Amino acid sequence: MTSFEQQTIHPQDNPLSPKGRFSRLSYLAWMFITGMIYSFALSIVIGIAAVALLTSASFDISTLATTGLGIFAIALFVLVVVVFMIFSICISIRRIHDLNKSGWLWLLFLVPIVNVIFSIYLFVAKGTEGANNYGPLRPTEQTEKLLGILYAVMLAIFIVAYGALLAWAISMQNQLPNLQQIGQSSNSTVINSQLENDDPSLENAVIDDAQPADANHENGGTHQ
């Protein structure tokens, strides 16, 4: 089979183009790649903004748009966010195409709660076998498989850790009234124990001091 025939069967496409298909691992891999690039670009933007604030008259974020470097940082931030959103939409459309569905379903990402369910669906749903309405089956490259598995493991760890942390926070919130009640009971017990263990000689001393005073008072009243 010639190289021309191979290219005809598996045409080279642009992974960041909405045309074409992405398998589950390819989708995860490119979400991971674009996410890493986005994080790196944001760190550069934050660094530029920090330099702009440090070189300004006052270290106030409200004055960021008053300097040339600050305006550049804001413009770069907007550009990075827009480019990342476009690439994310294109990657999602390719994954939707692999399920033989319209790419306009990416609009479900704009609906709260539904977007979470739809994201899980794209992660786990198996694409159609062979060619479909949106093109031939795109083979998953070895690098995409490795990155896709890595990203899937990272997501699983994050979800488990987040769930455990959320469960712990809810448990502590439910136990807070009981802990407060136990603390109040402990304080009352300590106070009562201290009162019971007071030295009785102190009370006797107070009584002895009070008796002469009463006697003098009575004598004084008799002399009068």
Automatic annotation (TrEMBL):
Pfam families (alphabetical): DUF805
Transmembrane parts of this sequence: 27-57, 69-91, 103-124, 146-170
Signal peptide start and end residues: none
InterPro entries: DUF805
Alphabetical UniProt keywords: Membrane, Transmembrane, Transmembrane helix
Gene Ontology cellular component list: plasma membrane
The protein, known as: DUF805 domain-containing protein
Record lineage: Bacteria, Pseudomonadati, Pseudomonadota, Gammaproteobacteria, Moraxellales
